[in-house]
């Protein structure tokens, strides 16, 4: 990895550790352990990059705020993220999460949904606790931001699920980006930046710039994630093919394939995507993957991801350009590049 | 199409915007779909562009009007009108080319010390084509295009620097021409020009770097621009202090670099709002943010730009105020998109050149004109979707025989508007004394009241009155609609003042040797002067006729907008002539001793001294509809579009609307009229309203 | 009561200030001629700006009770930003030609060339952020970034050889006409006049259709920074391209 990007894993590690430590206080197991609190701890303990809380903490720090101002929001965000993951796995009927069976796969849908709810409620607790440090008014602003972020994410998830349910194949890139904007960007990048700036004393400033930065960063992140999903497995296992394709997820590559293909080929693509997961064969998935190669869908998505990262760098320079040099600022500015560089 | 099917349109007002709308709605290709009636206060069309013929047939204007070479819609309108008018070749102003002449020389005035002014005139080269010609394929007006042109200008300016030694008093701004490659390579070869070469390299290298589309080089580009500015300053600094020519060029370089820098920094090329993205910034402030120096911002060049658009809030010279977005849009179009000449002058009064032909053509097309009608109230309907239910008007006067008022008079064979109404056509005896009040909102005589009702008298309304009148005539709209209220509060207007001199001898005798010129940036209270001597043949003087004509204009301070504004303007003008004109006209006597006897009165006059000024012409434009529309920062978003359909039978026209170009000028007014016509019938297409979609 | 006549509903209610008018004729929903980069970024900005605009409208509406903007705003915005980045490309291409002939520029604007050429660095596998070829010295690197948009002329192949003890990014822009010409490079200069120039720059002309070779030696004492210079056609004295070096790392101390 490029030298200047090394700062990203370093900061992620540092702020990740801070967040995990604070997170543990909210996840202390108590009764009923077996059906709830042990399960709540499951996903957070599986690790992860801690990108979201780190982004939140780094933004606050870049604006000169102490970590304590942002830690509650960071914890809440991580909890909400895990709540989303649990519900996602239920909704997507996924079998594996970070190399292990998903909660619904192990414990069934009913308990899993409940665990997701509990994670979200715990996040609310963390936000309420932030009143002690931030005061009622600012803490109230953070809660407003959180409500908005959750609403956006849920709307985005609804779009994604709805498209799959109704097997929409007329979607274009605009629809895709719109969905990513709500579903991924809002809680992955926009919210952490905005809240970081907010507690960093920037309530007086317009927070629009963070929506732009966050959107482009998040979009680059999501597209790269989908690319890794498509290509990573392939490289690692030789034959094992993308989980996203199995699930019929509407990634940019799929949208591009639908756009680029015609006639019988397009009908077959649509037909495969229309089937329930269980009815998709290995052959189907391999064929889809081959079509993507033929139509240059992967190259296309890669160039879009690069463009998004470029736009994010530009937006970062606009919002952070005036800040004093700091490690946190460097981190924020390096993120778009790192998003693409990570494997 | 039977009369019954025709859609009745009431056009309120007779200025550029209203006439442009009427012209579009009655184009023959629409097959007479619209039955248009124009309601006009007083005896003449023209609004702020109205003019009249006074004694000796002299032209008396509202102010100084000069057309610019980028007025594509306005020239198109005039070319169509003259075409349709079809005057015989023997008639005066038979064609639009007879009516308008290119004017290449413009001037700015620099302050070089206390009470010391230096004049800089420049010739802008004629550009391909004529305004109003069909545009070449492809829309050339992208921010990208302007960046390129600005870079070309920079290179050309560096070239001018080299050549400047030989011509101390005039410089040719070769803004529109790419640098000659010969000069460039010559500069590159000479060792002593290393810094200049470095600058040009820098400009080119930006290009190379930016191709990769990555954002990183943008900072590099900015670095380069900074370096160019710094290098240019370094190169010139030693000589700047005592070489005013160099200083001027430096100032333009400085402002151009700041503009480029700003366009890149604010990413204007990629902003869907176009230049509106920086509408909230004051122009000078924005340039300063992007590195322009204070001395450049106080240069004659910049002040002239402000003067041209009367950009002084409340008419206060201490409060220059212009939206950076609109300023950039205007300046870039002005310098980089003109065709034919930079300026075009009218070869008679604006009323004669513009509104008489439009009136005659519209009469032929069956448009009815109701003169002496003042709109008092726009009444909203209470049922159904929001709409105008009635228009309440005052009828100022009626004709004796009930037929239509015939407004034009013949001066030297040209149909013209008179400075006074033709009372012989009018009923009622009381008017004689008070004819001037026919153009006054507050004091106008009322012969009758009239109510126009929707469906019966009109189907659609084109509200084409000046912005200043809106609060009075649209009180219901303002009360009901926050958008309208916000518009009237945020889009500002300013009063103006103007005076005209007829001089017994030519300009050389006054010490001006620079040739016919339009010049701005001069001392208050009259910062703009234009030599209008070319109008003499159109007027009807007995011998000895005057030899030259001079027009002056400026804003009028809000403090001076009073009952007696007319007298105040007179005082301003007299004082200006006694104290300041000598800086422009060295032979106009020492301070305090203006040679009043050299003013030419229209007829025998025994007046001497200052009182001889009373034989000349001056105006205070303080009536609500006379007020000039400003482009103050942050106001664009409050403008309402003629396309706004909140009221389903109303559209608006005027240079105060969101018509695509947000500054007070003929072009904006004509654009708004075209957009208003589009709102009523879908034609002209918005894509054909040139500049409507300009960034 | 007679039915009132109402104004037709306008297709749009405001200027479309997208600077890229030329492509508006293209299919609004399709990919048109624009490359994916500019298209996606444009779409992205559209979505964000529209979102922000809706937020503001909502806030304003909440205060005044005015209705929210309709869904046709989406359609209205769709055509706008599609070519933003491509537009930037165009600028830089035209800037490149500042010293060239205006006629050539005109021709370029009329064609689709800028987009095709703008995509070229990608096709050549150049790093997306360096905008050129990263030559990790001392091993020589070669690539063919091209600098003009004349579609009928093949790109000028350029090989770059860098001798340096530190990492450097080199970007060479040559107009295609320069392929066979006798070229000289000016010394590469930093914007800071005090910093020594890079004088060891040589250009070997193309042999038998092979690449034009640019050899640059970077002295160890040079401070990090960007150095630029022009390429001149000796026969005509016309500038035909530029060389830019971005030097990383710390300068070796003279001792």
The top-level CATH class of chain A is Mainly Alpha
> What is the CA-CA span between the terminal residues of chain A?
10 Å
Number of strands of chain B: 23
Helix and strand composition category of chain B: alpha+beta
| Count of the domains of chain A | 1
Fourth-tier CATH superfamily name of chain A: Farnesyl Diphosphate Synthase
The CATH homologous superfamily of the largest domain in chain B is called: FAD/NAD(P)-binding domain
CATH architecture of the largest domain in chain B: 3-Layer(bba) Sandwich
Computed over alpha carbons, the radius of gyration of chain A is: 20 Å
SSE order of chain A: HHHHEEHHHHHHHHHHH
Q: N-to-C terminal Cα separation of chain B, in Å? A: 41 Å
Biggest β-sheet description of chain A: 2 strands, antiparallel
When the domains of chain B are counted, the total is 3
CATH domain topology of chain A? Farnesyl Diphosphate Synthase
Q: Widest sheet of chain A: strand order?
A: 1-2
Question: Keywords for this structure?
Answer:
heterotrimer; A: 343 residues; mainly alpha; 15 helices; 79% helix; globular; C: 255 residues; alpha+beta; 5 helices; 9 strands
Give a verbal description of the structure.
- The complex is a heterotrimer of chains A (about 350), B (about 700) and C (about 260).
- Chain A has helices spanning about 5-25, 35-45, 50-60, 65-90, 105, 110-130, 130-165, 175-200, 210-235, 245, 250-260, 265-275, 280-295, 295-320, 325-340, and strands at about 95, 100.
- With about 350 residues, chain A is mainly α.
- Chain A has a single domain, classed as Farnesyl Diphosphate Synthase (Orthogonal Bundle), CATH 1.10.600.10.
- In chain A, helix 9 packs across helix 15.
- Chain B has about 700 residues and is of the alpha+beta class.
- Chain B has three domains: about 5-55 and about 350-490 and about 640-690, FAD/NAD(P)-binding domain (3-Layer(bba) Sandwich), CATH 3.50.50.60; about 135-305 and about 320-340, no CATH class; about 495-620, no CATH class.
- Helix content of chain B is about 35%, strand content about 15%.
- Chain B contains 20 helices and 23 strands.
- In chain B, strands 7, 8, 17, 18, 19, 20, 21 and 22 form an eight-stranded mixed beta sheet that branches. Chain B has a five-stranded parallel beta sheet with strand order 10-2-1-16-23, covered by helices on one side. A three-stranded antiparallel beta sheet of chain B has the order 5-9-6.
- In chain B, a hairpin with a 5-residue loop joins strand 3 (about 50-55) and strand 4 (about 60).
- Chain B is globular and about 75 Å long.
- With about 260 residues, chain C is α+β, with helices and mostly antiparallel strands.
- Chain C folds into two domains: about 20-65; about 75-145 and about 155-245, no CATH class.
- Chain C has helices spanning about 35-65, 70-80, 85-95, 100-110, 115-125, and strands at about 135, 140, 160-165, 170-175, 185, 200-205, 210-215, 225-235, 240-245.
- Chain C has a five-stranded antiparallel beta sheet, with no helix packed on it.
- In chain C, strand 8 (about 225-235) and strand 9 form a beta hairpin.
- In chain C, helix 1 (about 35-65) crosses helix 3.
- The longest helix of chain C is centred in the first third of the chain and has 29 residues, at about 35-65.
- Mean pLDDT of chain C is about 55; it is low at about 20-35 and about 60-155.
- At the B-C interface, helix 4, helix 5, helix 6, helix 7 and helix 20 of B face helix 1, helix 3, helix 4, helix 5 and strand 8 of C.
